[in-house]
Amino acid sequence: MARYLLRRLNLFLATSFVLFIVLFIVTSHFPVEKSFALTGLHSPNAQQIEQIEKNYSLNDGQFSQFFSYLQQRLSGDLGISATSQRPVIEELASVLPASFELAAVSAMLALTLGIPLGVLASLSRHKITQHTIMAITLTGYSIPVFWLGLTLSLWFGVQLGWLPISGQLNLLYEIEPVTGFVLIDTLLSDSPYSTSAFIDALLHIILPAITLAVLPFTVVVRITRAAIITIMDQTYIKAAEARGLHTSRVVLRHALPNALIPVLKNLGLMLGPFASYAMVVEVIFAWPGVGAWLVSGIYQRDYTVIQGGVLAVALIIIFISIMIEVLYTAINPLSRKELYASN
């Protein structure tokens, strides 16, 4: 297992290295001065220009420039935002928690609703129930996320007025940030209106979380259904049923744990589309996350923000994908068998 973990670590490092190469090449093709694209400084003085040339080796060859660029980025120097003149790393740290919070709530919704429906679709003997569930998942998978977000905002936010359609929390509530996750910070707050603030934050996250959860929900339902159908035909399941165990007990204790393994694997493959969908959702609902921040940087031609946002999103996707693969290998007996055989 140690050799496998070492290989995954090498994969993470190699993929990250390629990512830095791509960002360096793209940065050199931005339609601005290279010093401005790297640092975000509008009109640097002579001393600053000299320091930039020294830090990024602008007077040397491409290889020296790349390794200097790599050194600066790995040290946490992502430049300064050309719009706000704040360090990009600070802005990134301020918007990451909102994106993580939205993604976590959406993933919980997708798994909490998708797994039971997938089991129901696989075990139900009523064709109407099966076809209805599969029709819902197919429809949800086919609906464009921007159309769904705008439609939910129009129905539940504008016409009915049930839910807020923008922001993370009402500006009337002054909650001191502790963790960066508003739902948690409102509960930790000693403010007399912390309960009202928590309810308000919960109402704000409902529409964007539902919109973002539709895609993984449909995939979870279909993968769970297919896995349960396959597993219920296995010999050990038939043996358990022959011993007189109730179907619900067989499913919960034997079939469902094994069915979650392919679900986990497919969740890792969905991280890229999930991240792109999250950016669209954040823009639609004015959610103060990385996606909205990155899109705003693109509109304003804030090149350091673009680099920082792309770098952060890509590294997070690479890291979580590899962690899911490691977890999948750890809990899947067949993968462990192949792993030990290869060693």
TrEMBL record:
Top-level taxonomic group: Bacteria
Gene Ontology CC: plasma membrane
Keyword Transmembrane applies: yes
Subcellular location: Cell membrane
Coiled-coil ranges from the UniProt annotation: none
Keywords from the UniProt entry: Cell membrane, Membrane, Transmembrane, Transmembrane helix, Transport
Ranges for domain ABC transmembrane type-1: 96-328
Residue intervals passing through the bilayer: 12-32, 102-123, 135-156, 201-223, 274-299, 305-328
CDD domains named in the record: TM_PBP2
GO molecular function: dipeptide transmembrane transporter activity
Membrane topology classification: Multi-pass membrane protein
InterPro entries, per database record: MetI-like, MetI-like_sf
PANTHER family (alphabetical): DIPEPTIDE TRANSPORT SYSTEM PERMEASE PROTEIN DPPB-RELATED
Family, as annotated: Belongs to the binding-protein-dependent transport system permease family. OppBC subfamily.
Entry protein name: ABC transporter permease
Naturally occurring in which organism (per UniProt): Shewanella canadensis
